[in-house]
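Next comes one such specimen:
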Amino acid sequence: MTKAKRLTRVLLALALSVVFSPVLCAQAQDVPPPGKSARIDAIKKSGTLRVAVLANAPWLVENTTGSGEHWSGPAWDLSKEWAKRLGVKLEPVLVSHETKVPVLAANQVDISVTPLAENAERNKVVDFVLYSNTSVCMFGRADNAKFAAAKSVDDLNSPDFTIAYFVGAGEEGWVKQRFPKAKLVGVVNSGATAPLEDVMARRADAAPINRIPYVPMSRKVKGLAVLPSANNCQDSTEKAQPVGAAIDKNQPEFLDWLRAVEKSIHAELVQSEQRVVDKMN
């Protein structure tokens, strides 16, 4: 085969991939036909998609005012999209922290849409449909010259910095691993979201906080700075952990379809999350 012919074939293959990839993507979003997924067949037969719910902002927000839609946020938006494409009604089933995963194996719900962080233990018993993540920010006083001079989280890993963390909190192990050169101070948590008091009293130069509660805290407490600084730390990848909905194991066709639908509206889900974060106070 000549070089010109090989090039022609490559270009033709690329052209076909451009033409057919949207078609294949659209086909993946199509509801599997009867007989392909026992779960989907059962949902359509009952006329109801049962989803486990437990508020966890910004992904799933409960409205307790008595007026307006009871649930909102990206997890709920995704649930509504699944129900709409299946042509069934959406039924929220309230769960607790103890039951939000076991309800799947017990077949009390079809999907647990209360936001779940993916981890190795959960991956043994459920499959995830991921749409977001949780991560950590490092905050300090804006008028702290050392913190203000830091350009990245890496810069805090220095003997010049004192970092406070809550003893027994989820960030403790990460802080010790992430900042081996810094001076670390473990403090007892008295119910606060983060070691804010230690930072404000200048006993520490920096402290960790989940990216979500940092936003309302920074609105209430003036004079804070954060790393990573881009997008107010909402794009942080520090201690990142995927977040999503979950289904019981061994439902490949159902899982593939759920993931395809999520992918098709992912940009809308990102915007939905941002709207919730913007309103947090």
